[in-house]
């Protein structure tokens, strides 16, 4: 069930197709009070907070404003390096008070969707016992009775990703509850390359589903649900700079936590997690409206075997875990939030790779990196034909 990332445009007569594309563009891309041109060709729309896509969701009609967009603050040089990590904002431009920053969805991205309804949808169900429809993983996981948040520091790479047919490579945090049948609830955040943007730049993304990826959920703001509050970040926009092999490492810090007052899941970033991107209202979920029972961290790729052999799409840096700091990709300072809303080290972290000859993972603990693991690999090689 991974056909959502294939290029398939034959879903109607030409006139009908054009009308559907135009209608979908208008539905996703809300009227902008201001537009910002990014150096990489992206367009960032500054959309009034109350007109964002989230409020098209029937469960969010009349949704009370919980966390209004914040007025951009001046940052010192250290904060700029830590918090302004997207190409479009490096010039210093930002959206004004009362608006949020949204990356405009392009027509070619709609054309890449299998159908208009599947725009931005994925089927990356995280089952540990098999390779799932071409999805391969290297993850660290913890399970328990109740988790209320998780955080991680992740280094960012620009991995090689096969484009014909299109594949993807990502690193993310999963917040999970329910079963892997029809009622899986999942919240996901991290960086990804290729899907669904048509290039290999690493981009900040979010995802959610409340029914095991069947009918609900999507990437970023391409369907109603996630309420954005940030004026300084645009979901789906390119991250810059990226880590350099045997050189400087560039990291992003992300945290998801359940608000004890209203039950919503907040998404934060920044050096001290003091910047909010937005939140998932608890009403979107059937299990995560209460708690999470599994937290996962790690990498994922799509292997289409288009030439009959394993893909050469890289995970992370494209190098195996044993190469270590500066060469392998990593997650560090991993913590989860317990029922007392305390951030604690990971209890009984289990690491696994679904295809160890192609991508692997090695975990540990030390003073510098806390709970951590290195992960990744090149894909196709002598041991991964």
Q: Averaged pLDDT, please?
A: 84
Rg from Cα: 20 Å
Largest sheet data: 9 strands, antiparallel
Strand segment tally = 18
Q: Class, according to the CATH hierarchy?
A: Mainly Beta
Overall tally of structural domains: 1
CATH architecture: Sandwich
Distance between the termini: 24 Å
Q: How many helical elements?
A: 3
> Which regions are unreliable across 5 or more consecutive residues at pLDDT < 50?
1-18, 69-81, 114-131
Order of helices and strands: HEEHEHEEEEEEEEEEEEEEE
Shape: globular
What name is given to the CATH topology?
Jelly Rolls
Q: Pairing-aware structural class of the strands and helices?
A: mainly beta
Helix content: under 10%
Pfam family, one: Neprosin
InterPro entries: Glutamic_endopeptidase, Neprosin, Neprosin_propep
Domain Neprosin PEP catalytic: 129-385
Describe the structure concisely for a colleague.
InterPro entries: Glutamic_endopeptidase, Neprosin, Neprosin_propep. The protein has 385 residues and is mainly β.
Task: Give a structural overview.
With 385 residues, the chain is mainly beta. The chain has one domain: Sandwich (Jelly Rolls), CATH 2.60.120. The protein contains 3 helices and 18 strands. The chain has helices at residues 14-28, 77-83, 107-112; strands at 34-37, 43-48, 99-103, 135-147, 149-155, 169-177, 185-194, 199-209, 227-228, 251-258, 265-269, 275-280, 292-302, 329-337, 343-344, 350-353, 360-366, 370-376. The strands form 3 sheets. Strands 5, 9, 10, 11, 12, 14, 15, 17 and 18 form a 9-stranded antiparallel β-sheet that branches. A hairpin with a 3-residue loop joins strand 17 (360-366) and strand 18 (370-376). The longest helix is centred in the N-terminal third of the chain and has 15 residues, at 14-28. It is globular and about 55 Å long. Residues 1-18, 69-81 and 114-131 have low confidence and may be disordered. It holds the Pfam family Neprosin_AP. Residues 129-385 form the Neprosin PEP catalytic domain.
């Amino acid at each position: 069930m991974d056909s959502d990332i294939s290029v398939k445009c034959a879903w109607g007569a030409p006139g009908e197709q054009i009308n559907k594309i135009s209608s979908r563009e208008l539905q996703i891309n809300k009227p902008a009070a201001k537009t910002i041109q990014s150096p990489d060709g992206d367009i960032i729309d500054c959309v009034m907070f109350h007109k964002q896509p989230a409020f098209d969701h029937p469960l969010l009609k009349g949704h009370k404003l919980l966390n209004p967009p914040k007025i951009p603050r001046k940052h010192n040089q250290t904060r700029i390096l830590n918090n302004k990590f997207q190409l479009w904002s490096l010039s210093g431009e930002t959206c004004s008070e009362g608006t949020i920053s949204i990356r405009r969805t392009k027509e070619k991205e709609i054309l890449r969707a299998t159908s208009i309804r599947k725009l931005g949808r994925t089927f990356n169900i995280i089952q540990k016992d098999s390779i799932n429809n071409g999805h391969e993983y290297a993850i660290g996981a913890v399970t328990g009775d109740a988790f209320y948040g998780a955080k991680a520091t992740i280094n960012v790479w620009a991995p090689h990703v096969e484009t014909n047919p299109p594949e993807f490579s990502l690193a993310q945090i999963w917040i999970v509850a329910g079963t892997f049948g029809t009622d899986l609830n999942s919240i996901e955040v991290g960086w990804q390359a290729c899907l669904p943007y048509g290039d290999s730049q690493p981009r900040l993304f979010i995802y959610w589903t409340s029914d095991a990826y069947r009918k609900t959920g999507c990437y970023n703001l391409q369907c109603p649900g996630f309420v954005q509050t940030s004026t300084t970040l645009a979901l789906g926009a390119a991250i810059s700079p990226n880590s350099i092999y045997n050189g400087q490492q560039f990291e992003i810090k992300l945290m998801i936590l359940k608000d004890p007052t209203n039950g919503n899941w907040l998404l934060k970033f920044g050096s001290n997690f003091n910047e909010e991107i937005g939140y998932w209202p608890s009403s979107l979920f059937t299990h995560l409206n209460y708690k999470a029972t599994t937290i996962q961290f790690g990498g994922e790729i799509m292997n289409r075997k288009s030439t009959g052999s394993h893909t050469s799409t890289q995970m992370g840096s494209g190098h195996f875990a044993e190469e270590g700091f500066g060469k392998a990709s990593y997650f560090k300072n991993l913590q989860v939030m317990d029922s007392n809303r305390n951030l604690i080290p990971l209890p009984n972290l289990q690491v696994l790779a679904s295809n160890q000859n192609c991508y692997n993972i090695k975990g540990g603990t030390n003073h510098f990196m806390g709970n951590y693991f290195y992960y990744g690999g090149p894909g196709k090689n002598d041991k991964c034909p």
